[in-house]
Amino acid sequence: METSAEEGRGAPAVRAVCTRQACKKYGQVAVLRNLSMTVQQGTIYGLLGASGCGKTTLLSCVVGRRRLDSGQVTVLGVAPGTSGSGVPGRRVGYMPQDLALHPGFTVRETLHFFGRVFNMSAEQVEKKLKFLLEMLDLPAADKMVRHLSGGQQRRVSFMVALLHDPELLILDEPTVGMDPVLRQVIWEHLRCVADRYHTTIIITTHYIEEARHAHRIGLMRSGHLLDEDCPGRLLAKYGCPSLEQVFLQLSEKQERGLAAQSGALGKSKKGSRDITGVTFDLPQLTDDAESEYWLSQQDYAARDSQKVCGLASGATLRALLYRNFMTIRRDPAFAMFVFGLVVVTVTSIYLAFGGEPWGLRLGVVNRDADCSRAAPLRDCRLAELSCQYLRHLAYPTVVKEFFSSKEAALEAVRRGRVWGALYFSENFTRAVLDRISYGQAVSEGSLEQSNVDVWLDMSNQLIGGLLREELRFRFLEFSQSLFVACNYSAKAGGVPVRFEEPVFGSRRPTFLNFTAPALLLFVMFFFGLALSVWTIIHERKEGLLDRIIVAGVTSFEIMLSYFLSQLAMMCGQVLLLMVFSFFIYQIECVGNLALVLVLTLLQGISGMFFGFLISIMCDNESTATHIGSGCLYPMIFMCGIVWPAEGMHASLTYFYRLMPLTVPVEAMRAVVSRGWPADKPEVYMGFAVSVLWIALFLAMSVLAIRYKRL
Question: What CA–CA distance (Å, rounded) separates 368 from 252?
């Protein structure tokens, strides 16, 4: 029978990892149940158990990524996460179950990135790279991770954990997908590291029999540690030829204990641990030994003094920024999302939104004259006036379709073939002339026959309103041309209301001029939100965030690196918005473009920090998408973007002004359409509200990080 290296040698006095009565739940599901485990310094500890038994959760608590609900855990003498402990940090090397690598990086770039995080020099990284490439039988260092096989990618992940020679090495399924010869090489290297450098190694594996290489193993099932001891002692203790049979025997014993107690939990005895009625003796950790252990580890805090003394490490921040920009550079699809979608969105908005409707079909029934033979109006020849009016209803706004009867035209409106019907009576021309000649003496019949009867489809308010204004404006234009032809002043044919040049805007404003300033802010807010949510949740899902945080990178450093890199991209997005809006599509702006640019950028930053908050609180893309969408839709409808605030219900008067976009939208319109400077209250309040929301989202993000780790 094979014996482990720990048998026959004295156990180290220092305990590297200790858990006592560790409990952890996810909702109502208990993952760790009063689990106590001891890992002695300088040994290899094999943690065995089926998927879902709690191994990964236990390791997450050991490296400080999760907190226990109850119980204690100490790592290298201190609780993980304690200031200056180095855990998470440089004292621990971590290989998670997920790949947790940047697929767009080469092997060399991957190790240099983590080397910067661990404050290693380029020469040190290259030296370790050469050694690890040879030991793990990997191809050239300049090959991208995405182009490696699954097993090769796992080996690169293993390289990262070994890179900085940590005191504690935690490996979650490191040999999955590797051939037996390479697994043997890895185990030999781990034994060498443990024996020569006194490194503590915790390793989980599906290959139960290869755990014989470990100095000590723990058998886990359903959140309990069934037993822990040297492999040889376990085999002898249970009289089994293989560790797999030992595990099977312990599992059956646990099930018998459950059946005997009918689900009731037994009471633990002093000096032993109760596993649902099955008791196993465990070594005791006396108070004196534990106190001595805590004190012996305090000197290690100096290794992480750079993190303690400042909010961020310059080397770490540079490494994170390098990673962020290289990710964009190596991912064309992401670059297209960042910049191409801005162009597509702005183009689609300006080409499809706010333009004047055209090609609107109108049904015409003319009993007054045959317009195919009507001559143009000149020399005061007052004939066929219905045809003269119809000439002013010209394409592209109106397309005329003639009908023989009023009933046929109305039926076409009901069927949706035309947007309206115009009816001219038989004596329209004569009645109009009588109305002009006789004034107040005109007969009631002439007044009735001089009208143009109009039936409109008002189901579409915008189109129906446009046609109504078009018919009125063209009739005014027709009457003025009639007076001019008869040598009268054109003013005599107009209405006695004179509209001077507008104070702000043009005589015929378009809906696009109203919505464009608001859409600029909304689009930038949306892109800031989408970019931060996608980036953070994607990296969390791939395990990248966990890995770099375990490496010692703080949440502040991660958020600062995201902010700086996304701010650079956001500046490019804002410039694209400005160019396409005001130079290519010629949106009218009478104010200072610099104010427009700064206000748009502030809204992008506000959306970015809102995205940070959503990403921290949500664990997956679908939840984040639902929350983001649920917040964006009220902004569209209640921030005055597509409809003036003056038209909203009175109950929303106070609520809508509390939203992030309402006051900035009013400020943007004041700058773009009115040309007001920054010292106007309507303008500077927009900037102030934007900054206030940025500060609020940032503060809430910081609180969320403390409540729920990034």
Answer: 102
Q: Which residue has the tokens 């043009």?
A: 506
Asked whether the bond before 396 is cis by omega within 30 degrees of 0, the reply is: yes
Q: How far is CA 560 from CA 232, 405, 434, in A?
A: 51, 73, 80
Whether 529 maps to a domain, the answer reads yes
Prior bond of 174 cis (ω within 30°) = no
Which residue would you say has higher pLDDT here, 547 or 495? 547
Do 553 and 692 have their domain in common?
yes
Q: pLDDT of 602-633, one tens digit each?
A: 999 999 999 999 999 887 888 888 898 888 88
Q: Are residues 460 and 580 located together in one domain of the fold?
A: no
Question: What's the mean pLDDT in 14-26?
Answer: 90
What single string gives the DSSP state of each residue in 45-77? EEEE--TTSSHHHHHHHHTTSS--SEEEEEETT
- For the chain, give the percent of residues with pLDDT over 90: 43
At 521 the pLDDT is: 93
Q: Is residue 209 part of a domain?
A: yes
More confident call, 402 vs 182: 402
Burial class (CB in 10 A: 0-12, 13-18, 19+), 420: buried
Looking at the structure, tell me whether residues 347 and 364 fall in a common domain.
no
* 123: in domain: no
- Provide the CATH number for the domain around residue 435: 3.40.1710.10
Domain limits at 614? 317-351+511-707
608 and 570 Cβ atoms separated by less than 8 Å? yes
Say if residue 371 is in the same domain as residue 416: yes
Based on the fold, state whether residues 456 and 525 are members of the same structural domain: no
Contact criterion met (CB below 8 Å) for 171 and 95 = yes
- When pLDDT is averaged across residues 674-702 and rounded to a whole number, the result is 95
Q: Report if residue 42 sits inside a domain.
A: yes
Residue 373: which pLDDT band, with cuts at 50, 70 and 90? confident
Q: What is the DSSP pairing of strand 278-281 with strand 272-275?
A: antiparallel
* Residue at a domain's end among 443, 462, 493: 493
Please give the residue that has the higher pLDDT: either 621 or 443: 443
CA angle 182, 186, 188 (to 5 degrees): 115
* Domain CATH for 257: 3.40.50.300
Cβ neighbors of 239 (< 8 A, separation 6 or more) are none
549, 684: one domain: yes
Of 509, 493, 461, the C-alpha closest to 392 is 493
Q: Report the candidate in 559, 664, 20, 84 with the shortest Cα–Cα distance to residue 282.
A: 20
**pTM (2 d.p.):** 0.80
What integer pLDDT is reported at residue 260 of this predicted model? 60
Instruction: Clarify whether residues 398 and 469 are in a common domain.
Output: yes
List the single range of 261-270, 396-405, 500-509, 682-691 with lowest mean pLDDT. Answer: 261-270
Q: Greatest CA separation found in the chain?
A: 129
Q: Which residues of 122-145 are buried (b: 16+ CB within 10 A; e: fewer)?
A: eeebbebbeebbebbebeebeeeb
Q: Which helix (H) or strand (E) holds 285?
A: none
DSSP summary character for residue 215: S
Structure tokens at 643: 């409809």
Q: What is the pLDDT of residues 34-53, one digit of tens each?
A: 999 999 999 999 998 888 88
pLDDT on residue 382: 80
Q: Is the pLDDT of residue 698 over 90?
A: yes
Q: Based on the domain organization, do 610 and 585 belong to the same domain?
A: yes
How far is residue 637 from each of residues 1, 33, 527, measured CA to CA in Å? 75, 50, 18
Distance, in Å, from the CA atom of 694 to the CA atom of 199, rounded to the nearest integer, reads 46
Q: What is the pLDDT confidence band of residue 403, given thresholds at 50, 70 and 90?
A: very high
Q: DSSP state, 591?
A: S
